[in-house]
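Researcher: Can you fold this with guanosine-5'-monophosphate in place?
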Amino acid sequence: MAKYELGETLFTTEEISVRVRELGREISRDYDGQEILLVGILKGAFVFLADLARCLTTPVRFDFISCSSYGSSTKTSGVIRFQKDLDTDISGRHVLIVEDIIDTGLTLSYLLRNLEARKPATLEICSLLNKKHVDGKIDLPIKYEGFAIVDVFVVGYGLDYDERYRNLPYIARLKK
Ligand code: 5GP
């Protein structure tokens, strides 16, 4: 197995915090006091979700879904595994999917189709990171995006490599 180590920092704790507060203000303004059901995609989104939620001034409920296309490698397997479904009936609710990173868009396009069928009042996406210039990327309606990044593998702030680095308070590149 290839050996990986932490590379350069892409986003510092301060940069992330500033951007998350901006997103929080934008979302609060858009929903204008309506209750939002925040749906975090486990596991990676848990840190972002916790910080974002505390920047929202609208009432919020939480639920989590676990759906992934990755094993312990740094490239997508192209196969979506659905490990945990929502606990909540989302019909008629304002659902905001909170994701850590969008790579090919495969995970979210699958999730969007799945959740749309449950008839939420609204369904939007908020992703902290979005990888641009990825081959075969699926075009998704991403309403809230933290940062656009190039196609490199990153860890920290909830993102892992083989379950490590999720607790880093910043986002760094993982290099061979
Ligand atoms: P997609 O289905 O969009 O190709 O992949 C999305 C999922 O792949 C993310 O939720 C995340 O779990 C994982 N992923 C994609 N790129 C990265 C990355 O650079 N670092 C980490 N740690 N996970 C990634």
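Model: Folded with guanosine-5'-monophosphate in place. The beta strands are 5-11, 36-42, 60-68, 81-84, 94-102, 122-131, 144-149, 154-155, 171-175.
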